[in-house]
Amino acid sequence: MTPAASLWIQIADNNWVSNNRQSGLRIAYCLFGLHWASSGTEFGYSFNGETKRMRSGLRSEISISNLRDLANRSNDWPRTLPLLGAAFCLLVYYFTIILQTLASFKSALPLYDYGSLYASVYAWVHHLNPYLDYPLTYHPALDVRGMFVPAVNLNPPVSLYLFRPIIAVGPIASAELWALISVCLFIVSVALIIRANPNPALRTRILLVLGMGGVWYTFELGQMYMVLLLLTVVAWLAFRRNAFVTAGLAIGVLCALKPTFLVWPVLLILSRHRKAGISALLTFATASVLPLASGDGVELYRLWAAACKGFRGIPLPTNSAIVAMFARLDPYTGITHYYRDLGYALTIIMLLAVAWIAFSKAPDIYRISEIALIVSLLAGPVSWLGYTVVLIPMLYERQLNALMRIGWIILCIPLHVLAWIALSSPAQFAIAGSPYFYGLALIGASLIYELYEKQQERLVLSPAEAPVPCRSVPLNETALEASWE
């Protein structure tokens, strides 16, 4: 017999108790009904609520037991079916995580994006153009017609210094070394996030973090996005300590590696968080001029600008930027630019609108940082799936409404499922070429709505931290007793 599990629910508002007793029981029944045992799955509930106990502590006890007896009653199956469906979805979710793990840490060949990085750094070390197509450069499928585009390295020149020390051991060995470094950076980042948010109620979100497509995209393609995650975590933790200069240093390095995130310090300054914003811009400028100390620094920036301008991979399925969504509507990708120009126009409108919101509303440093990260990913023009790992600190700690949960689930779509969806037909390529765009849009819309609703509490509070409402009138115990009878 499986030992019964008990759940105590503290109810602070007597009106809620009187009006929503049955619905509260149904919610507790659904949320805590799944209990696994070695002999099978047992589930059931019994309600023991004495009036005296309810007056003193306002507590109700729900015991979970005896699923077989409940399953034998045909009229209770409508209650158990959703739980069985949830269990099935959970098993499928675990299965996809395992599949992504196996796909991400297979043989080092092919090298994917890491091959492009290695070829770029190798060419730079040997005084060649680091932004050209080389034999190790990755060539992903551009669209449903089977066209391929060279995914040359588009990282700014300062990133070449990051990978220079590890290319001396050869492409395959350095790819394995970089994969190990990425895993360590991810573990450290998640550990710091969990330590900063000790609320046990948040531990289940680790499953969503592990299921994010951007995490396994980074591991499988050998990208540098775990560095971006660690820098974002450092900035987030520095905000909590009011160490705004330290946060600005982390944000500045992040922007130097990925200029897409320059929206972040600009919005910080507009929302009157000048210490963090200005220190970030100064750090970005300092890191960006480091290549100029060498003799070929100016030439490196010229070659990088030419590579960015001539890049034809904006419509690639993993690009979640607004301009990429419109570029995928172009039936002759790379030839005409009408839809792409429309995407650029909408991006500019979005940036101006968010800048006005930041200046007029002056949100706190956390809310404007959350908005800045989402806007950076939507503005692009290159916003690969791996960039979404920078959202992990935000999504882990904050309260999530329904739209945010849906958006986070969309970000968990595996990379290999995306290829099957996007490259099946031209219509699917145009509409669902990057479903992650819709996830980002849902999260961003929720953040803007929350800002205008002036929601005070942003973090998920533990039961000990949750405020207990006070009553200014004496408790009518007779009315409360009557409402429970």
User: How much helix is in the residues?
Assistant: 55-70%
Low-confidence stretches: 1-68, 466-485
Strand proportion, as a percent range, falls in under 5%
Average the pLDDT over all residues and give the rounded result.
77
Major beta sheet, strand line-up: 1-5-4
Note the total helix count: 24
Brief sketch in words of this structure:
The protein has 485 residues and is mainly alpha-helical. It is built from 24 helices and 5 strands.
Task: Outline the fold blueprint.
Blueprint: E1 5-10, H1 14-19, H2 21-31, E2 36-37, E3 40-41, E4 47-48, H3 51-57, E5 59-64, H4 67-71, H5 77-104, H6 112-125, H7 160-163, H8 171-196, H9 205-211, H10 213-221, H11 225-240, H12 244-257, H13 263-270, H14 274-288, H15 297-309, H16 322-327, H17 338-361, H18 365-379, H19 392-397, H20 402-411, H21 415-422, H22 426-431, H23 436-453, H24 477-484
Antiparallel strand pairs: 1-5, 2-3, 4-5
Describe the protein's architecture and organization:
With 485 residues, the protein is mainly alpha-helical. The protein has 24 helices and five strands. It has a three-stranded antiparallel β-sheet. Helix 18 packs antiparallel against helix 23 and helix 20 (402-411) runs antiparallel to helix 23 (436-453). The protein is globular and about 65 Å long.
